[in-house]
Design a protein that fits this description.
Length: 258
């Protein structure tokens, strides 16, 4: 707490006015009491410095934005808040998760959105959905994705420059973490996905990595040839989809649950 020196002059003038009013007897006791109370408020205000930027950062997410947050985003945001005193202002995490490249039973490749991945998957890419307030839009931000294994070791780091636009944005990592035949990975367990924007952690989400069945039974199964890649939602095994369709389908399911 620091006294603001620029208020010294008018505080001295107010004090002098109260002394004159008290000595002369011209002021009634009630008026004199009011002047003294005013001086006390002025002194207290001189030790308080309002900083709008800090107040805005400390404000909780708006109720409307909270209604649009997925369960994963709520959990990830709460974990991040418990670890940080400051979160990015003007940005709300609406959704967070992983998109895995999976080999389907017929040998084709599909993309599955979920919170569980297998070491039999080809790879996995993290994504987030942000709501950008107008005061935080029209600028470049650095989005950082990190994946940590069950031992706390970082297995994946990707940073990307993103131009923030007003409204809702889907941001998908440009690269993936290879899973199948990746001998560098320590194995299955509960892993963490950490998302940061401009160096401030926005979300921390746990997810499950299951063991590789292919690795255990490879000597008994014939090799699977590579097949053309197609995009498919987890709930639909027949209709090819684009990545935008996959994200739109997830948003539609969230609205239906609400």
């Amino acid at each position: 707490m620091r006294f603001r020196r620029r208020n010294t002059a008018w505080l001295a003038a107010l004090t002098a006015l109260i002394v004159v009013a008290g000595v002369s007897g011209a002021a009634t006791p009630a008026a004199l009491f009011a002047l003294i109370a005013l001086l006390g408020v002025a002194l207290a205000a001189s030790f308080v410095e309002l900083r709008p930027n800090r107040l805005r950062e400390a404000m909780p997410t708006s109720p409307l934005a909270m209604m649009r947050m997925s369960a994963q985003a709520r959990e990830a945001s709460e974990r991040a808040r418990r670890r940080n005193s400051i979160t990015p202002s003007g940005l709300t995490l609406l959704d967070v998760g992983l998109i895995a490249l999976v080999t389907s039973p017929d040998g084709s490749m599909v993309m599955r959105r979920g919170r569980q991945v297998s070491l039999d998957d080809k790879g996995v890419r993290p994504y987030i959905t942000l709501n950008v307030d107008p005061q935080s839009a029209d600028r470049n931000a650095t989005v950082r994705f990190e994946i940590l294994d069950h031992n706390g070791q970082t297995q994946y780091v990707h940073e990307m420059k993103t131009f923030l636009r007003d409204g809702e944005m889907n941001i998908l990592a440009d690269t993936q973490l290879p899973l199948l035949d990746n001998d560098r990975l320590p194995g299955a367990g509960d892993w963490d996905l950490r998302i940061s924007v401009d160096g401030l952690t926005m979300g921390l989400l746990s997810f499950t990595v299951t063991p590789s069945i292919i690795a255990r039974s490879r000597q008994y199964a014939p090799p699977v040839a590579d097949a053309p890649i197609r995009l498919q939602d987890e709930a639909d095994d027949s209709t090819p989809m684009t990545l935008e369709d996959l994200m739109r389908s997830a948003e539609k399911q969230q609205r239906q649950r609400r």
